[in-house]
């Protein structure tokens, strides 16, 4: 398994065979796939020699036919399978069948085709090195782990997005923005657009960034509640411990969890009344893309479950305010209790 620097070195020597990308940020993955496409196919016949396939809807026959077809007036062609979830460590029967057929096919894949696939990790805690499917694919493909951009590479990339949108941002403000926003370029772009709209006609200040960006702990609590919906107790408690290690107060953590359940309850009620994403976003005072994520999360709970979870939060708050209880233990008990409602 190589990283993006390893891929860059490999591209200088020449491209051939199959490539499998795995990571959290689809934008970074797509940009590097575009580099492979640009280096391999070009000119007026690019559209004929570049094929994209939806990995969530495809079949092995579709993949094989795309790869077997000879390139049109060129030496090579590129076939990209996006969101190839059949590569995940756990997939359904249909996905497992495609994966097994693909493993055999790659042993004698045509040299005129560069096959590129990728899938997105579920969360930052998922470790692709534990995916046995990737280990098997490495025998006949190059597996690329796409990590988040950091340091100067991150600052440079984010700065270029501001420039593309015609907005100047100072170096100090740029670094503060990068250090404050979630390191995901789909989110970064939305937050940049929001910040630009808010500061129209003037320079961006640190206070603007602080005011407009969501608290990072809110993202962790979203993940925590999502793991509760999946009945994953260990991961839920791991996130709580991470928040504590970051210095977050237990009462604040509890308050954020309670607010999350309350929002989900309100959103569920609103959806039942036929309210749109934009309507709900205004009511909860959150951007539309965050509201969309909350709408998806709310569907994982029933009204009874959400009510019970909110009640557990209130009971735990009462206990945390008493010195007679171990606060961390009570939080763990609450999380385990929410998994059982």
TrEMBL record:
Listed Gene3D superfamilies: 1.10.8.60, 1.20.272.10, P-loop containing nucleotide triphosphate hydrolases (3.40.50.300)
Cleaved signal peptide residues: none
Catalytic activity: DNA(n) + a 2'-deoxyribonucleoside 5'-triphosphate = DNA(n+1) + diphosphate
Superkingdom, taxonomy of origin: Bacteria
Classification via InterPro entries: DNA_pol3_clamp-load_cplx_C, DNA_pol3_delta-like_C, DNA_pol3_delta_N, DNA_polIII_delta, P-loop_NTPase
Top EC class of this enzyme: transferase
Listed EC numbers: 2.7.7.7
Annotated DNA polymerase III delta subunit-like C-terminal domain residues: 218-337
Protein name: DNA polymerase III subunit delta
């Amino acid at each position: 398994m190589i990283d993006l620097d390893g891929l860059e070195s490999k591209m200088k020597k020449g491209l051939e065979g199959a490539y499998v990308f795995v990571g959290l940020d689809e934008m970074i993955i797509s940009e590097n796939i575009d580099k492979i496409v640009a280096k391999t196919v070009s000119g007026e016949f690019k559209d004929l020699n570049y094929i994209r396939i939806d990995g969530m809807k495809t079949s092995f026959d579709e993949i094989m036919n795309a790869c077997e077809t000879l390139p049109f007036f060129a030496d090579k062609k590129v076939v990209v399978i996006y969101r190839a979830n059949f590569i995940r460590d756990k997939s359904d029967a249909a996905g497992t069948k495609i994966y097994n057929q693909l493993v055999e096919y790659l042993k004698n894949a045509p040299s005129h085709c560069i096959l590129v696939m990728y899938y997105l990790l579920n969360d930052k805690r998922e470790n692709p090195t534990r995916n046995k499917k990737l280990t098997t694919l490495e025998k006949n493909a190059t597996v690329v782990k796409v990590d988040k951009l950091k340091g100067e590479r991150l600052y440079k990339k984010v700065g270029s997005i501001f420039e593309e949108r015609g907005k100047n941002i100072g170096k100090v403000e740029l670094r503060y923005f990068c250090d404050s926003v979630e390191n995901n370029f789909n989110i970064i772009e939305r937050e940049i657009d929001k910040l630009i709209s808010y500061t129209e006609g003037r320079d961006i200040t640190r206070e603007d960034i602080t005011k407009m960006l969501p608290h990072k702990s809110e993202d962790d609590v979203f993940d925590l509640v999502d793991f509760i919906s999946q009945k994953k107790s260990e991961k839920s408690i791991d996130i709580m411990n991470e928040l504590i290690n970051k210095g977050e107060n237990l009462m604040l953590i509890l308050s954020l969890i309670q607010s999350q359940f309350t929002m989900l309850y309100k959103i569920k009620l609103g959806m039942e009344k036929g309210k749109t994403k934009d309507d709900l976003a205004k009511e909860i005072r959150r951007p539309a893309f965050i509201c969309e994520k909350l709408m998806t999360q709310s569907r994982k709970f029933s009204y009874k479950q959400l009510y019970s979870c909110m009640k557990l939060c209130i009971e735990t708050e009462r206990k945390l305010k008493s010195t007679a209880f171990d606060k961390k233990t009570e939080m763990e008990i609450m999380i385990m209790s929410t998994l059982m409602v």
